[in-house]
Design a protein that fits this description.
The structure holds 2 protein chains of 2 kinds. By secondary structure, chain A is α/β, with parallel strands linked by helices. Chain A contains 7 helices and 11 strands. In chain A, the strands form 2 sheets. Chain A has a 9-stranded mixed β-sheet with strand order 2-1-3-4-11-10-9-6-7, with helices on both faces. In chain A, strands 5-8 form a two-stranded antiparallel sheet. In chain A, α2 links the parallel β3 and β4. In chain A, α1 packs across α5. The longest helix of chain A is centred in the last third of the chain and has 13 residues. Chain B is α+β, with helices and mostly antiparallel strands. Chain B has 26 helices and 28 strands. Classes of the chains: A alpha/beta, B alpha+beta. At the A-B interface, α1 and β6 of A face α8 and α10 of B.
Chain lengths: 266, 757
């Protein structure tokens, strides 16, 4: 099982993602160079945080045109699991794999501090090891993290249960104060129609050790579990819109990974 | 493709031109002697830059040479791009501090950003991966729109640069005082880690080896920045052309490319083209190796046409490196740079004739012997005289402020101090910095010291930046010793043993006897501190001329202290964590209100002598803290500094990750209440511990000859802050002091939306 981590020029969470896969959950991690067209047989792709191409034009706007992204987009369209974290989420939106956009924080300032996010859905390859309603503590660090989309898109995301993470307070309540950037409906992370492509602004890869917190481990354990469940890595076949429920059933969480239970707030 | 330098008209070297280059008639005589002829115009520029205060340390070197620079852990001392210490198991820690005061005064965003860029390059050219930045910021009062504008711009500048490069900003200090009104102090420290096998230096060895310019192209920005940094800012200073513009994206690429070049063993040496650009990097690399260097400016990739040799030599365009490739490695070097979408050009060769020779195509335009240029910059030892006004302030009778105070006055004073921007929560600042990228930040901003993971060694690196300029102003030697002791104490509070420092000496015009006195005395104090604490200096920076027509800034020698923590899992937090734990005060509380924040913030008085400092006791306190952490005796440890015991206790109560905890404490003392609560007696630490370990702590302190008192206990999350001393009782709601403490900065910065220049 091999997880690919794309390195764009300006990626700066690539090593943290590598460590989360490698030391965090003991899977093989491989860097994929932005100029390459080869996914090197990876069974899942992570787009790490950072400032790809210096955020020139807009965060993620140039990265979507890089050679590797053509392959990532094809991989995602075939139902391959893809996770975009922070700048990776921005790239996924720019590439059209996820709807909506991430714009300047409502404070107009870069914001970096721990937040709490609630796991809203567990039928994705990146959340299957959590329980719905789990409250996770992980850091954010972004200047453009305010999630926005047309009302119709937001309605669709809600009705199709595609909001995966939401900013909440320590009691798990969605409040205005808990929303660090003005994201509509406190949205911190979403998935695509096929539920295989997930993007989120907070950094689960920064909290995968006893020393720094373990709330992010579940994301990586989920991925490993889901790849094992779908036949040791061969990607699932294309899921059409509307296939969601079937896909969910196939990926019902098996067991909780160690570390996840203690990580989750009541 | 490289541009070609434009042949400049021959410029006559007049006395006025020499003076404009900041060179005295005597210095010019010395140049004539070295060359045996008149310099060319580019040569005059080269001497001017290398013999500026910034590069040549002409007024500081005699004093800096008195500082201890050696120790068992020092792998690389001063004179390189950064200092390096041995952290065990083959790991090294590279670190250095740099000032960017003048650029930030003129253009705060770019000034601060390029300051971060420069210090990052100093660290990664040593072969180290930067893992943290700390910043020491001193501004004028936030009541002034100018100071708010500067703070806003500097914070964005430091943040945007570090955030983009992916190096977390993990700590530092922010001080506000009218003395910094028009000349802020912006010091940035960078810490990197490396395998000592990969240690790289700025050398130019091996005759015939290729000298390569890599990274960004050379433009006309920042020409003579080093000279600019060496003069006072005058009325209406608008020197924007001398401020460089940073590009953190290029820096990130350059960082990765440089580490790849070093990791693949392709280089002989590498150095940042920082202050004085190609000139300082080329000549310093040659000087270290006793070699010469031969460069053709026509081969240097330029950003714009028509640049003269003078401009190419002295440009301070950012994100450029000069390197010397190993024989036969030129094309591999170029391949690595190209992989990272960066340019590389062979611009010259290493020679063995000891000359810095610059050609413009065929014509030689500079030919200067390297050794006298780099190592024989004239130095000056001047006579320092204490300014009578400083003595008057120090000797000011402050006895009246020790008069009894009421409970109400004591409580009001606490609220005033917690609302003072220098003491209040810095959260507004550090929430604009990525503090956790790289997953090395074990303890981030808001604590006495930042603590970082040393790769997977199980050990940690602690770091702290400190300086109280008011102390140094009133009594420089003592103030500098206090800065040293406080930096060491901060690091030791985390459980780490302080091992070495880098320093950034920010002073006014050294030609003024009062300033020179401050400088000489402060450096003497630093030396005493270094020796007493066994923390040698591994490098640093001197920034003079921090003054405007309104006068000089407070003398501000910022200490960047590095400590090593043997067991990362025994790291000690600063703030209270556990309701029911016992609060202990280590150290003696005297009747010492002099130079305090209390006098300044509550009475508008700057005066009195700074508190006493006994370095031997400071060292025993460090030993005590390290041992207490090692034996897991304490739950938290926090330095008692500006604002005294009352503020230290409040910080312990308010700063925890899960919100404030109540405190109930009483200090039994004969000292008058104001001094007991707000005096800044040194070598004191507030600890919390399990009630069952109190006896052990008391015994350990006694063993070390340190006074110790059990003063109270930590309460539940919702409750009150109660502190009694000398018959006075402060009794305030936690929520109230918490609001004051955390809103002091945002209240001033966000509501005053009209940020103006």
């Amino acid at each position: 099982m091999k997880i690919g981590i794309v390195r764009f020029p300006g990626s700066n969470c690539d090593q943290d993602c590598h460590r989360a896969v490698d030391e965090g959950v003991g899977a093989e991690a491989a860097y994929l160079w932005h100029k390459s067209h080869d996914l090197e047989g990876c069974q899942a792709i992570l787009l790490p945080g950072g400032f790809s191409y210096g955020d020139h034009l807009r965060a993620g706007a140039i990265a979507r045109f890089s050679p590797i992204m053509r392959e990532v987009i094809a991989f995602a369209r075939d139902g391959g699991p893809v996770l975009g974290i922070c700048n990776g989420f921005q790239v996924l939106c720019e590439a059209g794999l996820l709807p909506g956009a991430l714009v300047r924080n409502d404070s107009l300032r870069f914001r970096s501090h721990p937040v709490r996010v609630r796991v809203e859905q567990t039928d994705t390859p990146f959340t299957s090891e959590y329980e719905e309603g789990d409250v996770l503590r992980m850091p954010i660090a972004h200047g453009e993290g305010q999630y926005v989309a047309d009302q119709s898109v937001i309605d669709a995301l809600e009705s199709e249960r595609r909001v995966i993470f939401r900013y909440v307070d320590e009691l798990g309540q969605r409040t205005e104060e808990a929303n660090p950037n003005g994201s509509v409906r406190n949205i911190a992370g979403i998935c695509d129609e096929g539920r295989r492509v997930v993007g989120l602004m907070p950094h689960p890869e920064r909290v995968v050790s006893k020393l720094l917190g373990t709330d992010g481990l579940g994301v990586f354990h989920s991925l490993i579990g889901s790849l094992q469940a779908t036949g040791d890595g061969t990607t699932t076949q294309t899921t059409r819109a509307g296939d969601g429920p079937a896909a969910q059933a196939a990926e019902a969480p098996a067991t909780h990974a160690p570390g996840v239970a203690e990580a989750s707030a009541p | 493709m490289s541009g070609s330098a434009t042949r400049a008209p021959v410029i006559e070297i007049t006395p006025e031109l020499v003076a404009d280059h900041g060179l005295s008639p005597d210095e010019y005589e010395q140049i004539l002697e070295i060359l045996g002829r008149e310099p060319t115009f580019p040569e005059l520029g080269v001497f001017s830059a290398m013999w500026s205060e910034h590069c040549g340390y002409k007024n500081s070197r005699p004093h800096l040479e008195t500082l201890p620079t050696e120790g068992p852990l020092v792998v690389q001392g001063p004179g390189e791009n950064a200092g390096v210490i041995d952290a065990g198991d083959g790991w090294g820690v590279a670190f250095k501090i740099e000032s960017h005061n003048h650029p930030s005064a003129v253009e705060p965003y770019q000034g601060a950003a390029t300051g971060s860029g420069g210090i990052l390059r100093d660290v990664f050219t040593m072969g180290a991966r930067p893992i943290a930045i700390l910043d020491s910021l001193h501004f004028g009062s936030l009541d002034s729109p100018r100071s708010r504008y500067l703070l806003d711009g500097v914070v964005r500048g430091v943040g945007d640069y570090g955030n983009c490069v992916g190096v977390p900003t993990v700590g530092g200090e922010a001080i506000f005082d009218p003395s910094y009104e028009r000349n802020p102090i912006i010091n940035v420290m960078c810490i990197g880690i490396l395998r000592l096998d990969d240690l790289m230096r700025g050398k130019a060895e091996g005759v015939g080896n290729a000298v390569m310019a890599v990274g960004a192209r050379t433009g006309r920005d920042g020409i003579h920045g080093a000279t600019f940094a060496s003069v006072e800012l005058d009325e209406g200073s608008d020197s924007r052309p001398q401020v460089q513009v940073g590009d953190p994206f290029t820096e990130k690429l350059l960082l990765e490319a440089s580490l790849e070049l070093i990791g693949r063993d392709l280089l002989v040496g590498i150095q940042d083209m920082g202050a004085a650009g190609l000139t300082s990097s080329g000549t310093e690399m040659a000087a270290r190796s006793g070699s010469g260097i031969d460069i053709d400016v026509a081969l240097v990739p330029v950003r714009e046409q028509g640049m003269t040799p003078y401009e190419i030599l002295l440009s301070e365009s950012q994100e450029r490196m000069l390197l010397v490739a190993k024989p036969g490695c030129e094309s591999s070097v170029a391949d690595v740079l190209s992989k990272w979408d960066l340019e590389a050009a062979v611009v010259g060769r290493v020679t063995d004739d000891g000359f810095f020779r610059v050609r413009d195509g065929g014509e030689v335009v500079v030919e200067i012997p390297v050794q006298p240029l780099v190592n024989e910059c004239p130095t000056y030892t001047r006579e320092g005289v204490e300014d009578p006004e400083v003595r008057r302030l120090r000797e000011l009778d402050i006895a009246e402020y020790s008069a009894p105070i009421s409970d109400q006055e004591a409580a009001d004073a606490l609220l005033t101090l917690l609302d003072s921007p220098s003491l209040a929560s810095c959260r507004w600042i550090y929430e604009q910095y990525d503090t956790t990228v790289g997953t090395n930040t074990v303890v981030g901003p808001g604590s006495d010291a930042a603590v970082l993971r040393l790769a997977d060694s199980g050990r940690g690196i602690a770091a702290s930046l400190d300086c109280n300029g008011r102390y140094v102003y009133l009594e420089p030697r003592r103030g500098a010793k206090i800065a040293m002791a406080e930096a060491a104490r901060n690091v030791a509070c985390s459980g780490a043993r302080p091992v070495a420092i880098t320093n950034c000496l920010n002073f006014g015009n050294p030609l003024k006897p009062g300033t020179y006195y401050h400088f000489a005395e402060a450096v003497a104090g630093l030396g005493e501190g270094c020796r007493a604490l066994s923390t040698p200096v591994t490098g640093g920076n001197v920034s003079f001329y921090n003054e405007t027509p309104d006068g000089a800034v407070y003398p501000t020698p910022v200490i960047g202290m590095i400590g090593l923590l043997e067991h990362l899992d025994r790291v000690v937090p600063s703030c209270f964590r556990t309701p029911g734990s016992t609060v202990v005060l280590v150290g003696e509380t005297g009747d010492e209100l002099g130079a305090s924040e209390y006098l300044a913030a509550c009475h508008g008085v700057v005066g009195g002598a700074p508190p006493q400092i006994d370095l031997e006791e400071a060292r025993r306190l460090v030993d005590f803290l390290v041992e207490a952490a090692e034996r897991r005796l304490v739950l938290s440890a926090h330095d008692c500094a500006e604002g005294g015991l009352a503020v230290a206790l409040a910080e312990c109560s308010l700063g925890g990750p899960d919100g404030p905890l109540a405190v109930e404490a009483e200090l039994r003392t004969d000292v008058p209440a104001a001094a007991a609560l707000y005096g800044e007696s040194q070598s004191r630490v507030v600890l919390s511990c399990d009630p069952e370990t109190v006896e052990e702590i008391v015994a350990l302190a006694a063993e070390r000859g340190l006074p110790v008192a059990v003063i109270g206990s930590v309460g539940p999350p919702d409750g009150r802050f109660r502190l009694a001393a000398a018959g006075v009782q402060i009794d305030l709601e936690l929520d109230r002091i918490h609001d004051v403490y955390r809103s002091a900065l945002p209240r001033r910065m966000e509501k005053q939306a009209g940020l103006t220049t």
